[in-house]
Write a structure and sequence with these properties.
About 40% of the residues lie in helices and about 15% in strands. It is α/β, with parallel strands linked by helices. An 8-stranded parallel β-sheet has the order 2-1-8-7-6-5-4-3.
């Protein structure tokens, strides 16, 4: 089964466009776990178990594990998700962007070591930095396209004078991903929720690609505007709306997993209501 098959099945089974980002910061853990990087797995596994029937994907951010020397806990977490939520695809948020043999090693890390279903990538170095990931049949790759940070304007919102039509850089990336770069049919794009107009523009250029949309919740993205801009339908690519901190740290007590579930349920229902009103 390909990544996109898994994504569509999970979205249908769980009636969800929501992705829970797993960005574990031990200083924000509940009191019983707080400050202990050895408890990263315990915290994340509890979140996964509490939300597995509410999401279309999980997205662990590798830096939050690597910074604490907790790659072994990420491996355990991936195994836990496979065993306890096998229907939910896992997107490894790594934002890799190297080329050649180094890119090949990063692809091995994502798909062989961790067993991810998809990975996030930076396309700044061109197709050379993407192609090694496309050698893995059925695996997904999301290219950074129009990100939600203010500094994204430094490059992404600049015009390319030497390209026909002088598109903005993010528009050019979207065209490449929709067209010649999508060799395995599993490419997607990352577009921040804080820019609904740009989400709509990317959807016009790349109508069939899945869009991974971070920034809903703590980063201020509007869930209703996000869904309407992404225009999910049977004829278009799916949207995956990520929320991390607003769900992970919804509660600070012993019932943190229950609080996370309540926040995830509310977000999922808000997204679905926006779709019904579209």
């Amino acid at each position: 089964m390909t990544f996109l098959d898994m994504l569509r099945d999970a979205a249908t089974q769980n009636n969800s466009m929501l992705c829970v980002g797993l960005d574990p910061e031990p200083t924000r853990f509940p009191a019983s776990l707080q400050g202990d990087p050895h408890k990263i797995y315990d915290f994340c596994a509890a979140i996964v178990d509490a939300t597995a029937d509410l999401v279309c994907a999980f997205k662990p951010q590798i830096a939050y594990f690597a910074a604490h020397g907790a790659e072994d806990q990420l491996e355990r977490l991936m195994q836990h998700m496979r065993a306890n939520a096998p229907h939910v695809p896992v997107i490894l948020d790594a934002k890799r962007g190297d080329i050649g043999s180094t890119a090949e090693q990063y692809a091995r890390e994502a798909f062989e070591r961790y067993g991810a279903d998809a990975v996030t990538l930076s396309p700044f170095m061109g197709f050379d930095s993407v192609e090694p990931y496309l050698r893995y049949p059925g695996k997904g790759a999301f290219l950074l396209c129009r990100t939600s940070n203010p500094g994204g304007d430094d490059f992404q919102n600049q015009r390319l004078a030497s390209v026909d039509g002088q598109p903005l850089l993010y528009e050019h990336i979207a065209r490449l991903a929709q067209g010649p770069w999508n060799k395995n049919g599993q490419l997607g794009l990352v577009v921040g929720a804080t820019y609904p107009a740009e989400i709509e523009r990317v959807r016009q250029i790349a109508p069939t690609l899945p869009l991974l949309i971070p920034g809903v919740g703590a980063q201020g993205g509007d869930a209703v505007a996000t869904v309407r801009a992404g225009r999910p339908s049977a004829a278009s690519g799916p949207i995956i709306v990520n929320s991390s901190r607003a769900i992970l740290y919804a509660g600070s007590g012993a019932d943190f997993a229950d609080a996370a579930r309540a926040a995830a349920l509310a977000t999922r229902d808000q997204l679905n209501a926006a779709l019904r009103g579209y």
